[in-house]
Amino acid sequence: MPNAVTIAGTGSYLPEKVMTNDDLSKIVDTNDEWIFSRTGIRERRIAAEGEFTSHLATKAAEKALEQSGIPAEEIDLIIVATITPDTLTPATACYVQENLGASKAVAFDISAACSGFLYAMKIAKRMIETGAFENALIIGAEKLSAFVNWNDRTTCVLFGDGAGAAVLRKSEEGEGHILATDIGTDGRQTHLLNIPGGGSACPTTIENAAEGLAALSMLGKEVFKHAVTRMKNSANEVIARAGLKPEEIALVIPHQANVRIIDAIAARLDVPNDRIFVNLHKYGNTSAAAIAIALDEANRTGKIKPGDKIIMVAFGAGLTWAAAAIEW
Ligand code: COA
Question: What is the pLDDT of residues 252-274, one digit of tens each?
């Protein structure tokens, strides 16, 4: 029998600086009414100069470790899900390992955009199930403010910075555990949402530096359509595999990209709005960090209690999607 795997602690960290929609209207031609009515976002957090993705990740991880009661030295595996790494190499997870003093942990990053935290959860779960590792730290962390084009009002209003983390370990008798996970990819849609420059396909050069190619580019309407279908299917997949009925679901934590996408998913899953977790009005879309931050907020504010069945579901560039069903 594979080991059952539980979430022993969660943590999150949001940079101090708040950027409101009104603040944004001084940078690009936009306004609070447009942004809020189309997305549900009121404000987002922006990391300070000198505050990198690894710093956000470390702060979230420290809180998750503290809640789990597992010291950093006993962590075997650190996975950082991010599309905004400190450096292309080494992995952001390596900086986090050093910051935490988690010297025995294997540390690496994964790039699955907004689905990254749930991809990391599936990988870590499998590692613990097989007995390869005992304690894993999974982190979603992003400094998207460094990768948005601040002249492009169609994208810069959507994103924010932040980090969330969870500690996974073998579940003891009577504890909750991860019931089911699902991950998927459609590589035919890479053009819908990407950062075209800064990689080997288009390295930043003196000639192209001013074109802002190392910034997020998106076909918003197309992304919207795929997001609803893929998230609905992925959530239903884990709901079925976990043998849950809609009325048994205490909370759905969807990716925090757009409240209209969230409403569309809620309607299709037949779960009432008061059981759908939303915090994107405060943080915007923090990509891989979004579900991790939301999970921590739901946990620390008592929105989820031991025994509750919760669903997390995400969607992002790739295109990627992922879901998890958990008994808390
Ligand atoms: N402020 C004011 N006007 C804006 C604007 C802004 N920030 N951004 C775009 N507009 C304008 C457009 O220029 C366009 O004007 P036009 O009609 O004169 O050409 C108009 O608003 C409508 O733009 P459109 O792109 O059709 O809006 P939309 O209803 O599709 O909403 C998104 C745009 C981005 C909010 C929406 O497509 C969306 O949420 N997509 C999903 C994005 C997402 O969640 N991505 C992350 C997935 S992980």
Answer: 999 999 999 999 999 999 899 99
